[in-house]
Task: structure prediction
Amino acid sequence: MKATRAAEATGRKSSIPLRKMVASEGIYLFKENHKLDLDYKRISQQFRDLKQAIRYRTASDMRRHRWEKLKLKEAKSCEEIEEFKTQDEGQGNQTKEDMNSVHLQRSKNGLQKLKVLLMNSPGISES
Result:
């Protein structure tokens, strides 16, 4: 009885209750929204890929870029070693052991920082 009144009130000729129709529309809209969300993610990934493809036209360009970045980092570290040498020139010539001790100290500092980060991250216990 209520269904027919609701159908008459909305101008429909269906006997399906309005509540069920609204629920089914909600499910349909949810599915459509999910599809749109997936489409958005797919399109945005394609856009990121396209931007990267423009930046690095070929895979060899990409490898060359990474290689140049690595070389730049090495050059900076070499400059730091040269600065270290020039600072201590008054004490005599730098030996290989001195430079190794500098690298060893930097490695120890990096490991200490990494250990602190790991200890502070949730879900990891000390082993």
